[in-house]
Design goal:
47% helix, two-stranded antiparallel sheet, 11 strands, single chain
């Protein structure tokens, strides 16, 4: 029995029962639609909450207006049903009115179904929009990651290549200290001792001051380096090779004998070959005007230029009957064991002043076989002004001088048509090779 309606009399005709049945079905369909509408409303509220303002206000307002209009329709329909309840007897007497209401409800049902489909379609579109937004948000994240990677590479590439490079980056440095560098041929950075004087930065490769470090060592120790950068040390042949093959380097040696004086030896060109060449010494251009200790590395009577490095476990000297490193307890670019040896045993005074101290720290053009109290070997890259002087001395052209003195890679580069490459890219020759040699461009042209 439907609440609010009188029970049909036994004499009720079949059309009347049909009308009641249609009414019940109509109310049932209405309730289902009402539930669907409520579910849609909840779904919309859920999506509106999750979107949190990321979807444009225009789309949300449109959907809210649509929902309000549908709600208004439901309210009107509910009011009509109430009116139908209150006027059921007249309506029962008028089958046409019931049929019209059923038709209207059927149309409304189809409209609801269509509207629900449209809302589902819009929800799918909104979901796609959200996914697209998430995808777009990932792009800046990936871009930032790339920027971080580029920044890291940039910082890695900006690591100073030697102590003179450090001084160019920090021109106020006025003393010495421990700094980190990374030569271009090196895959890793490492610490070095730097000396800053006269607006130049020197990289120290050897220091002897008190005999606290044993220099009688094998090949691997001299390859990798050993000791304490703040006291006595050998930087390492591999590091020296990497340093001196990124430009033309000066060599400066400080010698302090036991009488407290200071003697120096300076060379305009110094480098080491790689390990496959046994770290051969390339030394020339002794500077007599700035040196006071004489030439014990490239003198005609015992020239170490081109000599491989020797240790007690790898003998490369010129003597078939002797092993200089083993005999004199050290390691050096030996030829005949006599002219120079600054990695020997630390011999203290007064024995150091005797000619029999053959295994000490020797620089024989100054003190014959007397052993030094302190030694410092340091290097730095040639400057532009110094280069012009050397060019005048050697009477070489710009390209010949750079190819011969500054960078081993230039020889390979110049085997191609460098002049046409320069013209095509509007570069000078120095600018063309600068990425390889990091040369100053001032004063150079092709």
């Amino acid at each position: 029995m439907v609440e609010g309606f009188p029970p049909p009399s036994p004499s009720s005709s079949p059309p009347t029962r049909s009308l009641f049945s249609e009414q019940r079905r109509a109310r049932s369909r209405f309730r289902r639609r009402e539930l669907v509408q409520e579910e849609v409303r909840k779904t919309m509220l859920t999506y509106m909450t999750s979107l949190k303002g990321e979807i444009t206000d225009v789309v949300l307002e449109e959907m809210i207006d649509y929902y309000n209009s549908q709600t208004s329709k439901l309210y009107r329909l509910e009011k009509e049903l109430v009116n139908l309840k209150n006027t059921s007897l007249p309506i029962l007497q008028n089958g046409t009115t019931i049929n019209d209401l059923v038709v209207r409800m059927s149309k409304q049902q189809r409209s609801f179904a269509s509207n629900i489909s449209q809302m589902e379609y819009k929800i799918r579109n909104l979901t796609n929009v959200l996914n697209d937004l998430l995808s777009e948000l990932q792009k800046p994240v990936q871009h930032v990651r790339r920027l971080v990677s580029v920044k890291k590479d940039f910082e890695e590439n900006e690591t100073p290549t030697d102590c003179d490079d450090i001084l160019r980056q920090q021109p106020t440095l006025v003393t010495q200290g421990i700094f980190r560098i990374k030569p271009r041929l090196s895959s890793e950075s490492f610490d070095v001792q730097c000396i800053f004087e006269n607006n130049t930065g020197w990289t120290v490769i050897q220091q002897r001051i008190n005999g606290t470090i044993d220099f009688y060592r094998g090949w691997d120790d001299y390859k990798n380096g050993f000791g304490d950068l703040r006291s006595e040390f050998w930087l390492g042949n591999e590091k020296i090779h990497q340093l001196t093959n990124q430009g033309q380097y000066l060599l400066h040696i400080d010698l302090k004998p036991w009488d407290g004086s200071l003697r120096t030896a300076e060379y305009g060109k110094f480098s080491l070959d790689n390990e496959n060449q046994n770290y051969k010494l390339q030394i020339s251009q002794y500077q007599p005007l700035t040196s006071t200790a004489g030439d014990s590395l490239s003198s005609p009577w015992d020239n170490a230029n081109g000599a491989p490095f020797s240790t007690f476990d790898r003998d490369h000297d010129n003597l078939f009957y002797d092993n200089c490193a083993l005999t004199y307890h050290g390691a050096w670019w030996f030829t005949s064991c006599f002219q120079s040896h600054l990695n020997g045993a630390y011999v203290r005074s007064p024995l150091a002043l005797q000619n029999t101290a053959r295994n000490g720290l020797h620089w024989n053009t100054y003190a014959l076989y007397h052993s030094m109290k302190e030694t410092t070997i340091r290097i730095r890259r040639q400057r532009t002004s110094e280069t012009k002087i050397l060019m005048a001395q050697t009477k070489k052209s710009v390209s010949e001088f750079i190819q011969d003195a500054f960078c081993p890679m230039v020889a390979v580069l110049c085997s191609y048509d460098a002049e046409s490459i320069c013209r095509k890219n509007n570069l000078t020759f120095a600018e063309l090779i600068q990425p390889f040699c990091r040369l100053p461009t001032e004063g150079f042209s092709f």
